[in-house]
Amino acid sequence: MLAAALTVAVAALAACGGGTKTPQPTTPVPTQISAFPYDQSQPLAVLDRGRVNANYPIAIRDVSYASGGRRISAFLDAPPAHGRRAAVIYVHGTGGDRRQLLLPATWLAGRGAVTLAITAPSADETMPAGLSPLDRLRWERDIASLDVIAVRRAIDFLSARGDVDPERIGYVGWSAGAKTGALLAGSEPRLHALVLMSGGATPLPAYAVKAPVALRPAILEYLGAVDPLRLIRRATPGSLLLQDGTKDTVVPHAALVALARAAPKRTEVRWYPTGHELSLTAIRNQLAWLTRKLRIGPRVAGARTG
Fold first, then answer.
1. Beta strand 85-91 with 164-174: parallel, antiparallel or unpaired?
2. What pTM value is reported for the model?
3. Which of 25, 45, 125, 245 is buried deepest, with most CB atoms within 10 A?
């Protein structure tokens, strides 16, 4: 079941650093947190296409909402009404969509949380051909920003629901979704607990050293705005769980370690003897951590909880 929920075909989040000398930035890296602005007053224009499952205690609904000029498709797991509940947003890896983490999202809903598994904007985007090196960097920055904003709009969507407690909203991201989560950890204070699965990043100077000298300032500027290592440092201490596999062949081990070391104090880092996909043990640990951090409950009678 986990294999069906967690697609293996994903791209590496970061390339290995290949230089022996680290260049010094000649252009200051952006320092403002608000690298992901959006107009919160714009209507979400939520569409609910109805329930997609039957004969189960929790309804899974096919929904979508507006974000960044796009429609974001999602599956909403809503347990039967019981006051305001915790809520968690799930974001897939490269090559995936809202189905990829639906299984653990439904397990968490069985424990009593409202969950929203979205398809990130980057899933539908391909870099246009013929872009200049500078335009490629801008494109990468803009796509990363669209994914972050889509989650911020998901928070708006959940916060507006009568069955969600806005003070108990969390996030789970796998692979590329973990990279998005690292950006959110340092820029979105409405997320109170974040799980980053198989997420890593190479230090930007080590990446820039492999590029032509003339391009390095632009790399530091544009990719610096969406640098997971920079933003994760600003996360609230104690709000993060990082889960990584010691046998990961997709994200380099050094990149996994780099993200873990950049995280603030009281970050919980757990390693598993697995590859990029992790394991059922990791999912169960994650469910227990979220249940504790977000005070999730009560459980739904007859629903599976992982």
1. parallel
2. 0.88
3. 245
